[in-house]
Specification:
The structure is a single chain. 40% of the residues lie in helices and 10% in strands. The protein has helices spanning 3-21, 40-55, 58-97, 179-184, 224-230, 259-266, 292-297, 306-312, 337-346, 348-351, 371-380, 397-406, 412-424, 453-468, 473-485, 497-503, 510-527; strands at 198-201, 236-239, 256-257, 271-277, 299-304, 320-321, 324-330, 357-361, 365-367, 386-389, 446-450, 493-495, 504-506. The strands form 3 sheets. Strands 3, 4, 5, 6, 7, 8, 10, 11 and 12 form a 9-stranded mixed β-sheet that branches. Strands 1-2 form a two-stranded parallel sheet. It starts with a helix and ends with a helix.
Length: 528
């Protein structure tokens, strides 16, 4: 069923409605004037008229004819009016009985186009009906392409500057749209979620600690069979995803938040930008180059613990510091600060149940590009629901594990156990055979995502791996991604790390930096 053919059909009924409303019916004029001979009956009627005129005056005859004609017109108007009512009542009933969507499945990863084709036959379900209704498009965002000749279509990265003194990572140019254009392209509908349509979460007041290893009071203790079942992606799923105790996330669950703050978080319906600082480890970085529209429509939330709150009291004004609304978190569930930081990083869809899009940035980073421009460039233009930058140097999980061990990021035995477990499940070193996947290791300090069931499932599963194994989320990323990709057509947009460095910059906390430096120097001198 094409929109063109049905549109023309509905247009014809629009013309008929206008004619009926105006009290005018279409009249077909004959092509030529026809002459005919008066019939015998006509002559008899003419004789009758003369006979009436003979016995009555002309005035009385005129009045009689006038009354007869008026009565005939009155009867005719009543009859036609009833016919109009019946006709107008009948047309909408036909429209309401027709199906509104005849498409069996939504289009995915393609830009929808409607081609007018008046010769397309009607489907069997509506064949024979007098009126057709254009089927409504699937209620999903189907992507778009920029118009031909747009500068971003031909944009290419310039070669890196030849600076021998600087060999480390650096930023590169990114082709953003102006804020107004990016806002105009914001999807009206959510993106399609393959297979999974409804995701719900497990609450357990009485925790069953029957898992083989790992788990916590915050994330629950799912056993390995439950872990395997969570990767068996179905249309309806119920799974562990943190906050297993309490009535709702942030209320008696661990990672507890004030009720007034929770209410405000529930009122965030569009875009949320979130970050966190625990243990007064970083200094709050104020976003730059933010449009007035974003200041009015984007929710900026900074999660802090009690120690950080005490450090910020002099800067707080009505619960805010600049654009950031400060959310104080009580009863942190983990002793490991890095693991606590994974809660807002990976579970923003649980903390902001009504938000559509989110941008997570680590507390050490400063946002320097408008959120709508970032969302347009890395999600909407790519028709993606999850975007993260790849690591600037490492692409292989095995290399990442060794780098974590060398840097003392976690105890070596736990890292080795996690890698060995993944190897037994089929993890292999990264190679070109995995293309179009470009890396197995993300630079996880920024996450750009749309809150749809499949991306929510991904971050839930990713968090569960962090809760069960080590807090080094870069080690578990590819395992979760590949398990989901094996069962659906969903994947992650992994963009260049130099592009990530274009919209966030790291600002060194000099007091903390010198504190750490002096501590290391003093420790070395003491050992000597």
């Amino acid at each position: 069923m094409t929109g063109g053919s049905l549109g023309i059909r509905s247009g014809s009924y629009g013309t008929l409605d206008k004619q009926l409303q105006n009290g005018v019916l279409p009249i077909q004029a004959s092509s030529a004037t026809r002459t005919f001979k008066p019939s015998k009956m006509f002559k008899e009627k003419e004789t009758l008229v003369h006979w009436i005129c003979k016995f009555a005056g002309r005035k009385r005859v005129g009045m009689l004819f006038l009354c007869v004609i008026s009565a005939a017109v009155f009867v005719w108007v009543l009859y036609v009016g009833k016919g109009e009512d019946r006709e107008s009542d009948r047309v909408p009933n036909i429209n309401r009985n027709l199906p509104l969507n005849n498409s069996g499945s939504p289009l995915i990863n393609k830009v929808q186009s409607i081609k007018i084709d008046n010769s397309t036959p009607l489907p069997a379900s509506v064949r024979g009906a007098e009126v057709g209704v254009v089927p409504s498009p699937p209620p999903y965002f189907l992507g778009y392409t920029l118009p031909p000749g747009h500068p971003c279509n031909t944009f290419t990265l310039p070669p890196p500057p030849a600076d021998k003194k600087r060999t480390g990572p650096r930023s590169c140019p990114v082709c953003y749209l102006p804020v107004e254009e990016a806002v105009a392209l914001m999807p009206k509908f959510p993106s399609f979620s393959p297979v999974l349509k409804n995701l719900t979460y497990i609450y357990e007041e009485n925790l069953k600690k029957e898992t083989e290893f790992g788990g916590s009071d915050f994330g629950g203790y799912p056993n390995l069979k439950q872990r395997d079942d969570s990767y068996d992606i179905r249309e309806l799923m119920n799974m562990h995803c943190g906050f297993v105790k309490g009535s709702k996330p942030g209320h008696g669950t661990g990672f507890d938040i004030d009720d007034n703050d929770l209410l405000e978080m529930e009122r965030c319906y569009g875009v949320v930008v979130a970050s966190a600082i625990f243990g007064a480890f970083d200094v709050i970085q104020h976003p730059k180059n933010i449009s007035e529209y974003s200041k009015q429509t984007v929710c900026f939330y900074m999660f802090v613990d009690g120690e950080t709150e005490a450090d910020l009291k002099n800067e707080l004004e009505s619960g805010k510091i600049g654009l950031w609304r400060i959310i104080v978190v009580r009863n942190l569930p983990y002793t490991d600060g890095r693991r606590n930081g994974k809660i807002p990083k990976l579970l923003l869809h649980r903390l902001f149940p009504n938000a559509r899009f989110s941008l997570w940035i680590d507390g050490k980073l400063q946002l320097v590009v408008d959120p709508y421009q970032i969302l347009e460039r890395f999600l909407w233009r790519k028709n993606a629901t999850f975007a993260i930058s790849r690591h600037y140097r490492r692409f292989d999980v095995f290399e990442e594990a060794e780098a974590n061990k060398a840097g003392g990021k976690y105890d070596n035995a736990s890292i080795d156990f996690q890698i060995e477990f993944y190897k037994n499940e089929g993890l292999t070193p990264y190679s070109e055979a995995k293309l179009p996947i470009t890396s197995d290791v993300p630079e996880g300090c920024v996450i750009i995502r749309e809150h749809v069931p499949i991306s929510n499932l991904f971050t839930c599963l990713w968090f569960n791996e962090v809760d069960r194994f080590t807090s080094r989320d870069q080690i578990s990323f590819s395992t979760v991604r590949d398990k989901i990709a094996a069962r659906t057509n969903w994947t992650v947009n992994m963009f260049l790390d130099c592009e990530r460095r274009n919209f966030v910059v790291q600002v060194i906390n000099f007091p903390f930096f010198f504190y750490v430096l002096c501590s290391e120097i003093c420790l070395k001198n003491f050992m000597l």
